[in-house]
């Protein structure tokens, strides 16, 4: 049996299940991080030891902050397609909604939008956030397009986390009906 993070929420959308990361997600995460599609996620060239630590950061964030990035799968399935969720590592200027699609076959199907929208709503409603941003490399056209599709607007006055390189900040709107 695969251990799970006790007490972590599970979100469901029309097509997806969003859940905390688990050890069975490591191969999919590692394959993604090792490949060229992770160019905007990795801060250095692929290194298996750093990839392992990065995955541990995803899991540990839940323990240390009480929330974190969700792994998303198709409903009724267990294979990780990617991740999306609230994120606030130590030293970052603001709370973030982040996302990435690990499985190349899942790109272009709207899964990242569906997962990110559910995660953003969770952050505002369940966690009580009053603001959220996404830090995006300006060359990452797919993530910029997704932020805009989610209704986020570029906030040129907001700072980026130290050491993230090229970065634009996109500020998310509160979910409809929430003041």
Question: What are the defining features of this structure?
Answer:
8 strands, single chain, Aminopeptidase, 179 residues, 5-stranded antiparallel β-sheet, alpha+beta, 3-stranded antiparallel β-sheet, 4 helices, 18% strand
What is the gist of this entry?
The protein is of the alpha+beta class and 179 residues long.
Element layout with pairings:
Blueprint: E1 11-12, E2 16-19, H1 26-34, H2 48-65, E3 70-74, E4 82-87, E5 96-101, H3 111-125, E6 133-136, H4 141-149, E7 153-154, E8 168-171
Antiparallel strand pairs: 1-2, 2-3, 3-4, 4-5, 6-8, 7-8
Helix pairs in contact: 1-2
CATH-scheme architecture: 3-Layer(aba) Sandwich
- CATH fold label: Aminopeptidase
Tally the helices. Answer: 4
Q: What kind of sheet is the major sheet? A: 5 strands, antiparallel
What does this structure look like?
This protein is of the alpha+beta class. The chain contains 4 helices and 8 strands. β4 (82-87) and β5 form a beta hairpin. The chain starts with 10 loop residues before the first strand and ends in an 8-residue tail after the last strand.
